[in-house]
User: Which sequence fits this backbone?
């Protein structure tokens, strides 16, 4: 099994490199960006049978001289019934990533279902996956127009957008859910790549950032597709379970396998992935107020995870594992050695942390909301650990001895 956090844990024992100059895709190197909105890419019938035109908003660095840039397709959340490509987190990702040198498209997709029927919900997810596929093919066919490196296309989803993106990556034609075929009340939704144009192009991508999403069948994840995945999920998610259960804890909704179960499945398949679980964090934890208000510190945590994940596969990044280490936050860990409780003291009131065992295994991760926090180590075996803490000031790693 090959997981990037294992690489991080090993390299943290090495000397920290100090960057002599800013690097594209690692630093915010562009002062200005260009945004083009409401660009058409596909169409299809919605759940009421009405044709729906689909559009995207395109973000790119202003005056960019790089001919073909790594490219991120962002897919919004909203339970497959609400949301749009201009929600605050989609704008934040488009803005932030393009300042770092990526080209970004925030896409729209077909919404809507009858919540009284599981089959209608499954059909909505399938339609959304069809639209993600149509978008990928559109950008591959028009790569020259948008300045896209087709070998460096990434999907980044939020909730329902992640569900659609997971379908795009993993669902094969012979795995189509039964609900997507013609039935007594429903028409046949057609093959998974039947919507949109440019059928000659594949829908393969370089990687997927899957934020708080899930699948209704783990068998979709198989050795046929080895796309690297970065899972981000809160263990307090009551909308999409991080482990297994019905969406929204409502039995009427389909059961979903969340990030933890998908990670275990990819473990058995030996497919590169990362799992970032945050203790007690809620669904879409970087937003509040009906998804209208961004929590900047939480967004920065997710953004940096996504940035580091993509850097591993980006040939233009010199040293991806050092991406968050240019600045070392002032952090104190005591006592060390630790017996029961470990105290973490920082200059920042909002930080994320990860605890690794000496073999590189991720033991625990979460969010520290205060400048001084306590971590209970009594439940873990004695030995050496690596404690990693990240904030907007950077990332630092500390060797911890637990008695």
Assistant:
């Amino acid at each position: 099994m090959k997981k990037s956090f294992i690489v991080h844990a090993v390299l943290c024992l090495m000397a920290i490199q100090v960057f002599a100059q800013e690097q594209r895709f690692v630093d915010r190197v562009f002062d200005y960006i260009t945004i083009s909105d409401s660009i058409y890419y596909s169409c299809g019938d919605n759940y009421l049978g009405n044709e729906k035109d689909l559009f995207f908003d395109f973000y790119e660095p202003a005056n960019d001289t790089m001919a073909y840039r790594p490219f991120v397709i962002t897919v919004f959340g909203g339970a497959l019934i609400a949301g749009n490509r201009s929600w605050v987190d989609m704008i934040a990702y488009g803005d932030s990533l393009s300042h770092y040198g990526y080209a970004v498209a925030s896409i729209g997709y077909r919404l809507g279902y009858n919540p009284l029927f599981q089959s209608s919900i499954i059909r909505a997810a399938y339609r959304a996956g069809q639209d993600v596929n149509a978008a990928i093919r559109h950008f591959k066919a028009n790569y020259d127009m948008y300045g896209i490196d087709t070998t460096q296309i990434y999907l980044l989803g939020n909730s329902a957008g992640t569900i659609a993106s997971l379908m795009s990556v993993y669902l094969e034609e012979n795995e189509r859910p039964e609900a997507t075929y013609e039935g007594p009340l429903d028409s046949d939704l057609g093959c998974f790549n039947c919507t949109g144009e440019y059928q000659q192009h594949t829908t393969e991508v370089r990687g997927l950032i899957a934020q708080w999403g899930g699948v209704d069948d783990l068998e979709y994840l198989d050795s046929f597709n080895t796309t690297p995945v970065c899972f981000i999920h809160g263990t307090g998610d009551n909308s999409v379970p991080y482990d297994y259960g019905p969406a929204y804890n409502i039995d009427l909704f389909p059961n979903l396998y969340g990030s933890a179960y998908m990670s275990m499945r990819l473990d058995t398949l030996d497919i590169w992935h990362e799992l970032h679980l945050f203790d007690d964090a809620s669904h879409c934890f970087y937003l509040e107020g009906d998804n209208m208000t961004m929590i900047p510190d939480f967004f920065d945590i997710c953004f940096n995870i996504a940035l580091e994940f993509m850097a591993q596969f980006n040939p233009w990044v010199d040293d991806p594992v050092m991406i968050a280490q240019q600045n070392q936050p002032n952090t104190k860990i005591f006592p060390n050695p630790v017996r029961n409780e470990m105290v973490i003291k920082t200059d920042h009131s909002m930080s994320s942390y990860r605890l690794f065992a000496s073999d590189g295994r991720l033991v625990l991760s979460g969010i520290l909301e205060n400048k001084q926090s306590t971590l209970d180590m009594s439940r873990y075996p004695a030995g050496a650990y690596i404690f990693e803490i990240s904030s907007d000031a950077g990332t630092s790693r500390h060797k911890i001895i637990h008695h």
